[in-house]
Design goal:
Chains A, B: One of its GO terms (cellular component) is cytosol. 2 copies of one chain form a homodimer. By secondary structure, chain A is of the alpha+beta class. The first copy, chain A, contains 8 helices and 10 strands. In chain A, strands 2-6-4-5 form a 4-stranded antiparallel sheet, sandwiched between helices. Chain B binds a DNA duplex through helix 8.
Chain lengths: ~210, ~210
DNA sequence: TTTTAAGCGTAACTATTGTTACGGATGCAT
DNA sequence: ATGCATCCGTAACAATAGTTACGCTTAAAA
């Protein structure tokens, strides 16, 4: 695990902290689609992502959902951090977007490291900053943009985080993430195809550069 | 200032920290409507609110805006914190909702206090937690609810933070905060009046209990 | 008092999004 | 190959939200 850590976090943490982490943390591997965090769950450890991508979603009482953001290697979930340190239930859902590897850090160490390692403080605050900004961008999207723009930026974001121009999703999948209906997605995708921005296939969508 | 501090933050901070704050911080008073933070501004100090209420808004490139949340006494703006510690430009706008008093803490102390005071760490993390959750509630509103619901919850929130059942806003003001048009607001307000939930007057709205 | 500007109500219309319904295409299981 | 379920395209319609336009009311300014 020390190797995984060094590969992704050496530029962020002192070697001493890296050693501490590797002594106490647990490596966790998850398959694509696997659920990592459920709404209402209490969280006891925070994840450092070393491989793959995690999608983080908001859900309302009726089970409708909305994609908030993706996590990439070298990042952690500030929401989890927030729930851990304040001992509140999770208000988001997280699942593996692709096969992923995570380093799980028990929450007890957090406070200690905050005191002892400046790099840890920086990391934690940067995480909050990044996550806040991502959520704000989500706000921008749903508040200021129309569905066609939202759809296109969704496809592009997804392409980046999956590292491919082929989006392997059904229209229904997309509709869930954007909180709209399948018919609307199909309609707007068709428009994008006519504008030569994407190509539609069964079960996947190709983004044209 | 020590008095103001003790009144609002004694239950949060050790007396030693209170003393430190009062030695270095500056008391700032703002009038209703005064702008505290502009988009793009670099921030050098973080505010502790001791009196009044601050409204925090998001703005897009075209100048459209959307209300994110209010700050109350005993709270700080995690966005500001975030921008301070990571030295990024502000991506939000803040203005006084009512006449307010703030204690401005220069950012240099932040890191030091994080190391030395557990109560400061708790305060900072609680602030992040609260602000994240407020933004998420805003996401819920715009993603999952229709304009009539949003309008009503806007009125109720505003009533709470202004501590009165009389909302002194024009329909246009409300339209800006919700990022919709004046006509839509007037239309929906009229509906609410017919349902006996509010009473409409010129320049203000009364919420019926 | 008269004038002016801001605030509000309403109608008529458009645009966007959501819903229902149905049929064809595709791929998988038997 | 046949049957079956999922996926997708499309039409028709409904609901919601945004736009334009205009006139009345009210408060403040001249």
């Amino acid at each position: 695990m020390l190797k995984e850590l060094e590969l992704n976090y050496a530029h962020l943490f002192e070697s001493e902290l890296l050693k501490e982490i590797s002594q106490i943390a647990i490596l966790k591997e998850v398959k694509e689609g696997e659920e990592l965090i459920r709404i209402g769950q209490y969280l006891k450890s925070m994840p450092l992502l070393v491989e793959g991508a995690i999608k983080v979603l908001r859900e309302d009482e009726e089970g409708f959902e909305l994609l908030l953001y993706y996590l990439e290697r070298g990042e952690t979930c500030a929401m989890t951090l927030s729930c851990c340190t304040t001992n509140h239930k999770s208000k988001i859902r997280a699942e593996a977007e692709t096969d992923s590897k995570l380093i799980m850090i028990p929450i007890e160490k957090m406070d200690e490291w905050l005191v002892n390692y400046k790099s840890w403080r920086n990391f934690v605050f940067n995480s909050y900053h990044e996550r806040l900004n991502e959520v704000l961008e989500t706000v921008d999207n749903i508040a200021f943009k129309k569905m066609d723009e939202r759809l296109l930026s969704y496809l592009k974001r997804k392409a980046i985080h999956n590292n491919t121009n082929i989006i392997s999703s059904t229209h229904q999948d997309i509709a869930y993430d954007l909180h709209t209906s399948r018919v609307v997605v199909s309609r707007l995708l068709k428009q994008l195809e006519k504008q030569n921005i994407i190509k539609l296939k069964r079960n996947h969508i190709e983004i044209i550069e």
